[in-house]
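Work Package 3 (structural annotation) set out to generate three-dimensional models for the target panel prioritized at the project kickoff. During this period the team completed the workflow that converts sequence records into discrete structure tokens, so that structures can be stored uniformly alongside our sequence database. As a representative example, we reproduce one entry of 323 residues exactly as it appears in the project archive.
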Amino acid sequence: MALIIILVFLGVFAVVALLMVATSSDSSQQAKQMLARLDSVLATEKPEMSNLLVDVRKNDLASSIPLIDRYLRKLELTPRLRRLLYQANLKWTVGGLVLMCLAAFAIPGYLVNMRTGNIAISLAVGAALGFLPFGYVLQKRSKRMSKFEEGLPEALDLIVSALRVGHSLNSALGLVTRECPEPVGPEFRLAFDEQNYGLELKTALENMVNRMPVQDLRIVVTAIMIQKESGGNLAEVLEKTSQVIRERFRLKRQVMTHTAQGRLTGVILTLLPVVLGFAIYFINPKMMSLLWTRELGIKLLYTAAGMIIVGGLIIRKIVNMDV
């Protein structure tokens, strides 16, 4: 009965969403006309100058559906999800992410309930699969953060070289925006543009740290701020900072090498019971179905799931070392 209510709710929600999209066509048409006017104003005939234009129009919509957008704007979680999507370099909206999580939760849960008839197992499977879109965002974010960390020492070397030949710090940041690839170049470009638009250097760098909360970047920003207040040779400070970051990378790689066996053991021990359970189910469904058709089997499933989670967390705690 609960699943039927959920499906009815999702159906009504889809119908209302389609109606809201249809009724908002006029406003979207006006928005397109306004954007076309802005494009015509920003247009230039020189292709070499088009790359220097900065798009100051920010899309802060949480969802393309107005009703969902107004609701998500009231939640304190929306800015955090929007920041995660930006850090992952995904063009999704917060509403799109939420809808994908709901779909990944409802559809597999309903299918599992049709097959097994057990609501607890259906909810567990739905919750696990419903986390997949959010997990994908976290994985993309972690990959982009790692790429930023790897490219930061090269950016610091460019800044040091520019400072030693007589350029100012602002000019050195502009050099990084032109020479460094994504994600280092675009992030420094935002800080460079913010400073040119009137923000203080400290505020622009702090905004970059908020966008990219990387420990190495915090060290760099702190070093620049200390040099601005107390004076000294900024090129030498940044050069030593770059050396420290490279040493941290070397130590991280060494730690990853020594803990590779433990991490692989954790993955195998976590996935082996699940994969083996599905394999036995496909070979002999009647025997495997005893785990969710009898009270003792359900208790064993709960116990096994708890032990797998606890064991995986313990192994993760052992092999994860902060450098």
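Confidence is low (pLDDT under 50) at residues 15-27, 44-57.
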